[in-house]
Design brief:
The complex is a heterotrimer of chains A (91), B (313) and C (97). By secondary structure, chain A is mostly helical. Chain A is built from 3 helices and 1 strand. Chain B is mainly alpha-helical and 313 residues long. Chain B has 11 helices and 3 strands, in the order αααααααββααααβ. A two-stranded antiparallel sheet of chain B has the order 1-3. The N and C termini of chain C lie far apart (54 Å). Classes of the chains: A mainly alpha (91), B mainly alpha (313), C mainly alpha (97). The interface between A and C is large, with 44 and 49 residues.
Chain lengths: 91, 313, 97
C-alpha cells in the first residue's frame, strides 16, 4: 500500500507541475494567484499522502501549515493585484 | 529507480524551474508570487529530507511571511518612482557574480565533504534524555546551543528597531502603515473571522508539541503573527501604535524570561543558561511559551512596517 | 476486512488523483479566468476530499484520522473563500487587474 500512495503523490505532483506551467505562461496577475491556490491544495494532498505512506504523523502538521499560509499569501496577493488596497495615511 | 526517488527527481526539477522563472519574470509582483510558490515547494523538499522542523518553518516564513514583506517592498518601490533609480549593468553583473560564488561554495561543500563527515548527532541523542525533551531539535535550541537561540531572539528585536527607525520624526510612536483593503470586503471579513480561531489553536499546539515532536516557538509564533495580520488586513482591527506599553512589554517578555532563567542558572546549576537537574523541561516549556508570544508580536510588527502617522488622542 | 479497506483506498485515491488531472486539464483548456477558477475549485473539493477519504482506512489511530478530516475541512473552507476573493478581484478590475 505505501508504494501505491507514493505513486499517487508522484501523479499529483506531476499534475500540479503541469497546472503551474499552464498558469504561469499567462501574463495576468490574477492567473498567478491561482498558482498559489493550486499549490496550496496540491501540496496538502501530496503531504497527506506522504504522511500516511511513510507513517510520519508530524508531516501532517506541515500540511496544516501549508494550508494556512497558502490562504494567507493569497489574501495578501489579492490585496495588491486588485489595486483594492489603500495605504493608511495621516489625516 | 524506486517511486520515492521518482518523486524526488520530479520535485527537484520543479523547484529549479520555479526558481529560474522567479528570476526571469518581468514584474516585481510576479516575482514575489513565484518566490512564494518556491517557498511552498521547498517545504515539501524538507519533508523528503526528514527535516520536518525546517519544513514547518519554511512553509510559514518562506511561504507566507516573506511574501507579505516583499509585497510591502514592491508597493514602496512603486511609490518612489523606480525608473529614476534604474540599476546599471555593472551592479547587476556584480550581484550575479557574487550569487554564483555563493552557489559554487555550497556546491563544493556538498559534493566534496571531509572524509568522515563531521557530525554531533550521536552526542545529541546520547545527552538528550536528562533534559526530558523528545525532539532533538528543541534539545539543540534550548539545551546545547541555548546562547545562540537567546541571541537570535535579540536579533529579531534589533531588526524591528531597524524597521521602526525608518519612521519620520512626526510619526514616531505612531501607527504602522500596513496596507489594508480599501473597501470592507464581506468575503475577506468572513475569512478573517474563520481562520484565526483555527490558526491560534494550531499556533499554541505548535509551541506545546515542540518539546516532543517537530514544532516549537518560532513556528507557533509565526502562525499567531499571520493570524493577527490577517485580521488587520481585513480591516477588523487597527494595527497598534508602536508606542503602546503592552506592545513593548510583549516584545521583550520572551527574551527577558529566557535571560533571567539563564542568569539563575549560575546560582542553581553552576553555569549560565544551565538548568537545575529535573527542572529542565518545565523551564524550557515556559521559555518557549513566552518566546512564542514575543516572536508573534515581533514578526507581526516587522511585517506591518515602520509607523507612518502619529498616534491619535 | 483489510482487503475491503484496501480496495476502498485504491478507488478513492485514484478518483481523487483523477480530479487533480481534470482540474489541470481545465486550467489548460478553459478560455477565461472565471471558468479556470471553476476548474480549480473542483480540485479543492473533490480531489483532496477523495484522497482524504481514501487515506482514512489506512490510518493507525483515531486522532490521526480526525486530523485528516480537519485538514480537509480547513482547505475546503479557506479554498472556497480565497477563490471568491480572486473572482471578486476579476469582477472589479478585469482579468488583467
Amino acid at each position: 500500500m505505501p508504494s501505491l500512495l507514493l505513486g499517487a503523490s508522484v501523479f499529483v505532483l506531476l499534475t500540479v507541475a503541469l497546472g503551474l506551467f499552464a498558469i504561469l505562461r499567462r501574463s495576468a496577475d490574477v492567473d498567478r494567484l491561482m498558482a498559489v491556490q493550486l499549490l496550496g491544495t496540491g501540496g496538502v494532498a501530496i503531504l497527506l499522502l506522504l504522511a500516511v505512506a511513510t507513517e510520519t504523523p508530524s508531516v501532517m502538521d506541515v500540511a496544516v501549515m501549508l494550508a494556512l499560509f497558502a490562504a494567507f499569501a493569497a489574501v495578501a496577493f489579492v490585496r495588491d493585484a486588485s489595486g483594492a488596497s489603500s495605504e493608511v495615511r495621516g489625516e | 529507480m524506486s517511486i520515492a526517488s521518482v518523486f524526488d527527481v520530479a520535485l527537484v526539477a520543479l523547484i529549479l524551474t520555479i526558481g529560474a522563472s522567479a528570476i526571469l519574470v518581468r514584474t516585481a509582483f510576479a516575482a514575489v508570487v513565484m518566490f512564494v510558490v518556491y517557498g511552498l515547494l521547498l517545504s515539501m523538499a524538507w519533508v523528503r529530507l526528514h527535516a520536518v522542523d525546517v519544513a514547518l518553518t519554511e512553509a510559514a516564513i518562506g511561504g507566507g511571511m516573506t511574501g507579505l514583506l516583499l509585497l510591502g517592498a514592491v508597493a514602496r518601490s512603486r511609490s518612489v518612482n523606480v525608473d529614476s533609480v534604474r540599476v546599471g549593468y555593472p551592479l547587476r553583473l556584480a550581484a550575479g557574480a557574487l550569487c554564483a560564488l555563493v552557489a559554487a561554495g555550497l556546491a563544493v561543500a556538498i559534493f566534496y565533504p571531509p572524509a568522515p563527515v563531521p557530525t554531533l548527532a550521536p552526542m545529541v541523542m546520547e545527552n538528550l534524555p536528562p533534559s526530558g525533551l523528545g525532539n532533538p531539535v528543541a534539545g539543540v535550541l534550548f539545551v546545547f546551543r541555548a546562547l545562540d537561540t537567546l541571541l537570535e531572539k535579540v536579533v529579531l528585536l534589533l531588526a524591528l528597531l531597524g524597521v521602526w527607525s525608518l519612521a519620520p520624526d512626526h510619526a514616531w510612536g505612531g501607527t504602522p502603515g500596513l496596507q489594508v483593503y480599501a473597501r470592507p470586503d464581506p468575503t475577506l471579513i468572513f475569512l478573517a473571522q474563520l481562520l484565526p480561531p483555527v490558526g491560534i489553536v494550531f499556533g499554541i499546539y505548535m509551541c506545546w508539541v515542540g518539546a516532543k515532536d517537530p514544532g516549537g516557538a518560532f513556528q507557533g509564533g509565526t502562525v499567531l503573527a499571520a493570524m493577527w495580520l490577517l485580521v488587520i488586513v481585513a480591516g477588523l482591527q487597527k494595527a497598534p501604535a508602536i508606542g503602546r506599553l503592552w506592545l513593548r512589554v510583549l516584545l521583550v517578555t520572551g527574551p527577558v524570561l529566557f535571560l533571567a532563567i539563564g542568569l539563575a542558572g549560575w546560582v542553581f546549576a553552576d553555569a549560565f543558561l544551565a538548568y537545575p537537574a529535573g527542572y529542565a523541561k518545565p523551564l524550557i516549556v515556559a521559555v518557549e511559551a513566552a518566546l512564542t508570544l514575543s516572536i508573534a508580536v515581533a514578526l507581526g510588527m516587522l511585517a506591518a512596517g515602520p509607523p507612518v502617522r502619529a498616534q491619535q488622542q | 476486512m483489510s482487503l475491503v479497506m484496501d480496495i476502498l483506498t485504491i478507488c478513492a485515491v485514484s478518483a481523487g488523483a483523477l480530479f487533480f488531472l481534470a482540474g489541470t486539464v481545465g486550467l489548460l483548456r478553459f478560455p477565461d479566468t472565471l471558468t479556470r477558477l471553476h476548474a480549480l475549485t473542483k480540485v479543492d473539493n473533490l480531489g483532496l476530499g477523495l484522497i482524504v477519504l481514501g487515506l482514512l482506512p489506512q490510518t493507525s489511530s483515531v486522532l490521526f484520522a480526525v486530523k485528516l478530516v480537519f485538514v480537509w475541512l480547513l482547505v475546503q473552507l479557506s479554498g472556497a473563500v480565497v477563490t471568491q476573493l480572486i473572482a471578486g478581484a476579476v469582477r472589479h478590475h478585469g482579468a488583467d487587474g
